[in-house]
Structures are given as structure tokens and as C-alpha cells.
Amino acid sequence: MILNATFLSAFLGVLLVLLLPRRFEMLSRWLALLASIAGFVFACKAFAGYDQKSAQHFQYVTQIPWIKALGIQFFTQADGISLVLLVLTGIIAIAGVLFSWNVTQRPRAFFAFFLTIIAGVYGVFQSFDLFLLFVFYEIVIVPKYFLIAAWGSTNREYGAMKLTIYSVAGSALVLLVTAATYAVSGAHSFDLMVLADHAHIVFPASFQVWAFPAMFLGFAVLAGIWPFHTWAPTGHVAAPTAVSMLLAGVVMKLGSYSALRVAMTLFPQGLEQWRNVIAVLATIGILYGALVALAQRDLKFVVGYSSVNHMGFVLLGLVTLNTIGLSGAVLQMFSHGIIGGLLFAVVGRMIYDRTHTRDIATLGSMHLSKALPFAAFTFTVASVASMGLPGFSGFIAELTILSGSWKPFPLLLIPTGLGVVVTVAFTLRALQGSFFAAKADGPPDPAGHHEPFDPITLPEKLGACLLMATTLGVGLYPKILLDPIMRSFDSPLMHQLIREVASK
Amino acid sequence: MSALTFLTFTPLIGAALAAIVPKKHAGYIRALGFGFMLSSLAWALFLAFAYRRDIGGIQFSEWHLWVPNLNLGITYFLGVDGLSTMLILLTAIITPFALLAAGSSLSKLNVVMMLLLQSALFGTFTALNFIHWFLFYELSLVPAFFLIRSGGGKLASVAAFRFFVYTLLGGLAMLVSFLAIQLATHTFDLLHLASLGQSGDLDRMLDAQFGSLGFGPGGISLLVFAGIFLGLAVKVPVVPFHTWLPDAYAEAPSPVSMLLTGLMSKMGLYGFLRLLLPLFPARMQALSTPLLWLAVITIVFSAIAALAQKDIKRLLAYSSVNHLGYCLLAIFAFAAVPHGPPNDRAAAMDGVLLQIFNHGLTASALFCFVAFIERRSGGLRGLADFGGLRSAAPVIAGLMGIAIFSSLGLPGLNGFVGEFLIFKGTLALGAFQMINESSGAVLRAVVFAAIGLFVTAVFLLNLIQKVFTGPLPERWAKFPDLSSGEILTVAPVITLIFVLGIYPQLLIALFNKTVLFLP
Fold first, then answer.
1. Do A291 and A264 contact (CB within 8 A), yes or no?
2. Is the Cβ of B200 closer than 8 Å to some Cβ of chain A?
3. Among candidates B363, B377, B393, B390, which has minimal Cα distance to B483?
């Protein structure tokens, strides 16, 4: 039940926010914050209470028949992978609310949509009934459209529509394959555990060979797999800050998580056949994302493409099919969630809301490191974390993925390594260009005498500190997440993915 | 928590506390920073005395599983030998020295960054697992970046950025090399890798793991070596990887230059001694001729470049490259003649370690005097801007003269002993190589490097002449001499310059055993 409490508290928050009379704007923020904190606390409690010694890999099981005629159940449980991502969702939810404290345009509606997405994300990470999972998955998509179209900035209608079309097309593929799977299996069940158990016997290779790529792709679109990534930068840029944070922080992870949990476990033979193709696409994503980010003039686009780059690592880790690479992929999901969220928070909230520009050259003339030192500091920390400096979560995650992919894909290490170098380059370029392009000996601010920027507010500082502390904490003590993650790959459901024993 | 962890975390706690205090209490922040640095110094002194020099080897070691689940061999592994203890001591001495030299010009950010840098240095000098080491090595970039930038102006910003990028890319090359090593050996443990390196197993394991890539026998190990070498060469620096350095040293505020030259350049040399030499002794021997030439080029080029400088800080920057070049020369000669007489090898290596410590003291003292001069001249620091200061400010002239002569290698001052041992050791090794292996590589290098010695003398004497002698320009007639606070700031280091010049055994005893164990 404690698992369900995560999304229930978010739904309760939606309900309460909507019930508030229109004039209680401030209260709606506090309610949203409370609901997010409650969800986070439940997620943490579940994480802390997870018994790693137990023979049961999946714990907190709730299994209630729902639509008996179709064999649909309400079936939630969690292993280490789910728990890590649930905690991530909790952190991003809190930070997202803190960074949208300044939303004045219909805050009730804003926070209601926001919490709906959070509830859906919590739901996906714990559903083990395909139908239930799909329901939660769809709950996430609709509010995204409204949030971007109504509260977004640059090109928001276009960005919102593009993102929604991609998401819907992806989920249509998923739905199609889910229906086919239900029909082919004959098990009269959407229970992932049951279906995966019989995967080898029940699903003929001829079925898997098209069902796997269709389903994997359907999910991976949301994870920004190249060449279906184009929604990501446009959508991220158009979205209001909190939604960019959600998109990069958790929604992209829905894609990679479901690809791992559903597509890969159900269709092992299909996976075998398409594995190399996916690895190549992932590597292209790493390199391409980095190179395109290097060419951007809009700071938010840089961060948007960096998401494509970092998610490429996740996808590469997934198809290594060894414990190290797979665990690295899950750790990278967490790590990028935090770091990506932080980057968008600085760019969208701390900078854009004050300067009303995201053009790197224009920002460079504003002496931001002097004018907004806290923003500059936070962006520096986020940048060094993002380029994988040791001590931050990104380093250990990418190190783990690279180490895992050496065995299966030795040749891909060269373009991937190149991608890492370009990542350093574009991150430094953005950091230097927008924050430290000091012209202190030139005339101060030729652009005109603008008023001093509003100081960074307390909610922003709290949110930034939360995210920075998380990436640093995990970077210094990755064991706290790696233990439960690696343990999860011993469960019968996930262990079938492991193709080779990790070298000793 | 044990001794070394405590050492690393003390400045971190100080940085956190200093960060909390509001900016307007700058005086308290500086006092707080200084207090923490003094306690680090006390702790470092305690370690240096408690280190059992009669036994040698790694002591105070601490080992915890860090990321155990991955079988990547990432551990929290600390320990010190004589070399590390000496560098810890140097770090603990120079950091408060730089803080005092900066005086009231130091902002809150810079105090925090200096403490962070100190912690990163302690971490680097105590780590015995590559990932652990690398974490602190890279961590030092962030405070250094901000410290260099604090020089102000466009040029400082560019210099800081260039420093950051060069070192980061070098670090990346090093990381890739160590990943390859990890894949082949399944460990990041530097002591274990050192034993593999000395038995030659490391090369064999690299060949076995990567043989299929078609680099031929030893090919991959050469690439791995090159990656690590590149990372360290940028840091020391070795010419031609030095181009970031003159700008960084010159544009940074002088107290920051003290840290850069006194401590951060030592991270690179430490890497040569801790990573490259133990892991690849055979490779270094095989490549010793080109490596020795690189050292000679570094020495001679930087000496000539220093001769051509018109800015005191740039001159000192090249002088720093020049002095560390002698260390490189001796390290490469040491590697070139592995079967040489143990006494001569020990002499050369003792010289390297002494030179590391002494250069740290002397170079940071020199930059400290530049800080004092800049404070009086309103930032002017061209050689041509001064003259005859001796008559206006005899104390500055006298004390800075001591530091310059120490840098020049005057017997009786600390700089002499290190350089003497380096040349004595390398010459003997060169002679041994000539006789037994009929190869003149080391000998030739030593002879050419000796040319550098002359040029060093010329540009340092030129510095004295241009600044302190000759007619005193009108505008410096009222050039104030050192205040008593400033004298107190430099007094400990000047004292050490004399003490170590007269009684170098004080330091040699600390690391003599360690030197004997080097491959």
C-alpha cells in the first residue's frame, strides 16, 4: 500500500487544488508542495524499507482483480529499479513545485496538471499489469500538452503539438503490440510476470521479430532515441520550467524504464536480433546530440540536446545485456533526471524569467556571474556534473555503462568516447559563453541600463540545493542506489536479460 | 575516522562554514579560513612526525569498499609514504602562506575556494586508488578555475578557461587509459598496479585483453602510456604542453599564482612518480631518449623564454617551468638506467623530491613578493617599471633577494641541495649508462640541461638588476617597505629556506626509504 500512497497522494493533491476557491492561489502552491513532499516521503520510506536480503525481489505487492472479463488486474509492486525511479520522481516533483513558485497565471490549474503527471509517473514505475501501466502512461501524456500550450514560452503550440504527436504515435505502437501480445499469448492476462515467464515458449520468433522493435521503439521515442528525438529539444524549450524539468527528469525515463521492463523482458529473441541496431542508434544519439548541442545559440536548446546525448547512454547501457551495463543504465536514468532537471531549472527559471533571453551571446554581455552569482554557481555545478566530473552521479553512471559496453560493443567505444569529449566541449562552451564571458575591462553592459535582476528567491535556492546535494551524494556514495539496482537484476524476470556473466 | 580522512575533510568543513558566514564579515571569514589552515598544518606536522621513517612504505592506510557492486575495483583507499607526507606538509605550509599574502584583498569566495583546493590537494596526495585519486585531481580544477578568474578582467577569464580545458582534456586522456587498464586487470588499486607494472604483467594483460584490436604486441600499452603521459604533461607542464601556463600564472592574482606554482604543478610531478613510473618502468626505459629530450627542451626553452619576458610574473612563470624541468630530467634519467648504482639512483631521486619541496617554498615566496610589490605599485609589474628599489625598500629587496638566490641555487640556501643532487645523480647515471650500455643519452641530456642552468642564472640576476638596482625613478621615491605584518607573513618561509639549505637531512630523512623502494 505504501507504494500506492505515492500516486494517491499526488491524486489527492490534484483533487484538493481543484476544490480550492480561485482566490487561494498561495494555498494551491503549498498544497502542491505538500502533496509532492508526501509522495517523496512515501517513496523514500518504501526505498528504505526494501529488504535486500529477502528472497523476494519484488516487494510491496498489491494484486487486486480489476476487469475480470479481460484478466486485467490492479497489480503494483517494486524492485530496486522501480524504487530508485520512484525516489527520483519524488525529488523532481518537489524541485518542480519549488521552481514554479512564481507561476501567477492560473496556478491552481497549473499545479493540478503538474501533480497529475507526477501521479502518472509514479504509477508507471510500479505497475506490473500491462494494461494498468498503459493507463498510467497515458495519464502523463495529456496534461503535458496543456501545460506546454498554455504556460509555455517560445513556439509553445508547435512544441506542444509535436511532443504530443510523437508521444501518441509511440503509445499507439505500444498499444498495438500489447493487444497482439495479449492475443498471441492466450494466457488471458496482462500480468507482466506471467507473460514474461512464458515468453520463450509462447511467443514465436516470427512474432517477436516485429513485436519487439515496435514496442521498444514505441517506448524509446519517449526516451529520445535517435532519429525520433526531435520532439525533445523543441518540447523542452517550449515548456515552462517545471515541465521541462519533468520531461527531462522523469518523463524521458518512463520511456527507457518501460522499454527495459516490458519490451525487453517480453521479447528476448526479438531483443537478440535488434540489439546491435539499438546500440548503434544509441551511439549516434550520444554523438549527434553532443555535436548539435555544440552548435546551438539558445542556451535551453543546448540543454535540450544534452538530454538526447545523456539518454543515448541509457539506451546503450540497456542493450549491453550484462549486469554492469544495465545497472549503469538505471543509474544514468536517475543521474540524468537530477542533473537535467537542475540545468533546466537554472536556464528556465533563474535566468530566462529574469533576463527574458536565452541567447548565449546576449547572456554573455550581462555579467551574470556578478549579477546572479547563485545562478552562476548552480549552473557551474550542474555543468561539471553533466560533463561527468568525478564526484557527481553522472561520472559513475557513464563509467559503468562504458565499462559494461566494452565486451559486447568494443567498436562503439570510439564514437562514444568522442561523444564524451564533445559533451565536455559543448557544456564548457555554454557555461563560459553565458556566465563567464566577462568583459569587465570593457564598458559595463552596452545593451542598456536595465534594472538589477530580482534576487534568487528562497524556493529556488532550496530546489537547487536539493538537486545539487542529490547528485553529489549519489556521486560520492553510489552504493546506496547501486545495491538495490544490481540486486534487481537477479530476479527471474530481469535475470533472463543477462547474456553474459560479468567478469570477475 | 582515521588520520588521513580527517586531514582531507578538515578544510572541507572549513569551506562549508566559511560559505555560510554572510559576505560582509569578510574579516571573520579570513580568520576562520586561516584557523582551519593552521589546524591542517598542525595535523600535517603531526603526521610527518608520526610517520615511521625507519620503516618507510605506506602507512596510515585506510581502506573501505566504495562502489563494491560493480567489480570495478573502485575503493576508498588512502595511505601515505614519505613522498606523500612531504607533499602534504608542503600543501599545509603554502596554503596559509598564500592566504596571508593575499591579506585583506581576499573575498569570501576565494577563502572558500582556497580551502576546497587544499582539500583536493590533500585528497590527491593521499589516494591510492585511481578513481579516488582522479576524483580529487579533477576536483581541484573547480576552485582553481574560480581563483584564477578572480584576477579580474577578460584576460583572467580566458586564462582560467584555457587552464580548465587543457587540464580537463588531459585528465580525460588519463581516464581513458585507466579504463583500459581496468578492463585488462580488473583493478584501480595503484599499489597492485605498481606490482603488476614492475613484473611486466601489466603489459601482458593489456595485450591479452586488447590483442584483437590489431595494435600489435605492446601497441596498446604504448597508447595507454601516452594517454597518462599527456594528462600529466599538461599539468606539470612539459613543453610543448605548457601554453596555458604563462597566462594563467600572470593573470591570476599573485597569491593564487603561489598556489598554482607551489602546489598544483606538483600534482603533475606526483602523478609521474605515483602513476607513470611504477606502472610503466620498462616503457619509460624504452622511451627514455625522447623523454629526456623533452625534459631538456622544457628546461632550455623555458629558460630562454624567461629571458625574453618583460613582465615579472611571466618571467617567474617560465622560471617555474624551468625548475620543474630539472625534476623531469632526473625522473627520466632514473627510469633510463634501472640497473644503475643504487646510490646514484637514490641521489637523483632524493634530488627530485627535495626540488619539489624547495621549489614549492621558493616559487611561492617569489610570487608573494610580487604580490607585495603590486600592492604598492598599483598593479604595475613590468621589469621596466621599476629600478633602484633597494634604496627605497631595503627589506623587500633583501628578502626577495634571498628567495631569488635560493631559486638560482646558491649554496647554503634550499634550492641548491635539490639541484645539486639532481645533477650529481644524473651525471653518475649517465656515466654508468655510457660505460655499461654504451649509450650517451642521459649524459648528453644532462650536459644540455646544464646550459639551462646558466640561462637561469642570467634571467634571475637580470630580475634583481632591473628591479632593485640602478637609479630609483622619481615616482617610487616613497615606495613603502614591508610592514611588520608582511614580514611576519614571509618570515616562516624565509626561515625554512635557510634551514633546509643548511640541514636538508631534515627532509631527506622523511622520504629516503621511499626513494629506495621506487622501481
1. no
2. no
3. B393
Are A99 and A20 within 8 A, CB to CB?
no
In this prediction, residue B2 has a pLDDT band, given cuts at 50, 70 and 90, of: confident
Top residue of A320, A380, A396, A418 to mutate, by most chain B CBs within 10 Å, is A396
Grid cell at residue B45? 606536522
Q: Is the peptide bond between A21 and the residue preceding it cis, with omega within 30 degrees of 0?
A: no
Residues 303-362 of chain A with CB under 8 A from chain B are 324, 327
Q: In chain B, which among 143-182 make CB contacts under 8 A with chain A?
A: 149, 152-154, 156-157, 160-161, 164-165, 168-169, 172, 176, 179, 182
Secondary structure class of B59 (helix, strand, coil) = strand
Contact B338, B71 (CB under 8 A): no
> Mind telling me how many Å the CA of A438 is from chain B's nearest CA?
6
Rounded to whole angstroms, the Cα distance separating B268 from A457 reads 42
CB pair distance less than 8 Å for B183 and A424: no
d(CA B330, CA B66): 36
Average pLDDT, chain A: 88
Residue spans of alpha helices (H) in B438-472: 441-468
- Please tell me the total count of domains within chain A: 1
- pLDDT (tens digit, 9 = 90+) per residue, B419-441? 999 999 999 999 999 999 888 88
Q: Running DSSP on this structure, what letter comes out for residue B129?
A: B
| DSSP reduced 3-state for A129 | strand
Angle, CA A350 vertex, CA A346 and CA A352 arms, to 5°: 95
Q: Kindly report, residue by residue over A357-408, the tens digit of the pLDDT.
A: 888 888 888 888 888 888 988 999 999 999 888 889 999 899 889 888 888 8
**What residues contact A184, with CB distance under 8 A and at least 6 apart?**
A202, A203, A204, A207
Asked whether the beta carbons of A170 and A258 are under 8 A apart, the reply is no
Instruction: Report yes or no on A448 lying in a domain.
Output: no
- pLDDT band with cut points at 50, 70 and 90 for residue A440: very low
Contact call for A327 and B69, based on CB within 8 A: yes
Q: Scanning every residue of chain B, which has its alpha carbon at the shortest distance from the alpha carbon of A420?
A: B172
Q: Is the CB of B211 inside 8 Å of chain A's CB atoms?
A: no
Q: Taking Cα atoms as reference points, which of B60, B58, B64 lies closest to residue B4?
A: B60
Transcribe B248-303 into DSSP letters.
HHHHS-HHHHHHIIIIIHHHHHHHIIIIIHHH-HHHHHHTHHHHHHHHHHHHHHHH
Please report, for chain B, the start and end positions of each structural domain, with discontinuous segments joined by +. 1-279, 282-519
Establish whether the linkage from the previous residue to A227 is cis, with ω within 30° of 0: yes
- The pLDDT assigned to A200 comes to 66
Residues B124, B235: Cα–Cα separation, whole Å: 13
Chain A residues lying within 8 Å of B154, measured CB to CB? 438-442
Residue A449 domain-assigned (yes or no): no
Task: Tell me whether residue B65 is exposed, middle or buried, using C-beta atoms within 10 angstroms of its C-beta: 0 to 12, 13 to 18, 19 or more.
Answer: exposed
Alpha-carbon distance of B204 to A21, in angstroms, equals: 75
Query: How far does CA A361 lie from the centroid of its chain?
Result: 29
Residue range of the domain that includes A84: 2-439+455-495
Interface size between A and B, measured as CB pairs under 8 A:
82
Pairing of strands B74-80, B59-67: antiparallel
Q: Which residue has the cell 500516486?
A: A7
d(CA B154, CA B134): 30
Q: Does A193 touch chain B (CB under 8 A)?
A: no
A interface mutation test: which of B23, B65, B66, B69 has the most A CBs within 10 A? Answer: B69
Q: For residue A64, list its beta bridge partners.
A: A74
Q: What is the pTM of this model?
A: 0.83
Q: Which residue type, as a one-letter code, is found at position A246?
A: L
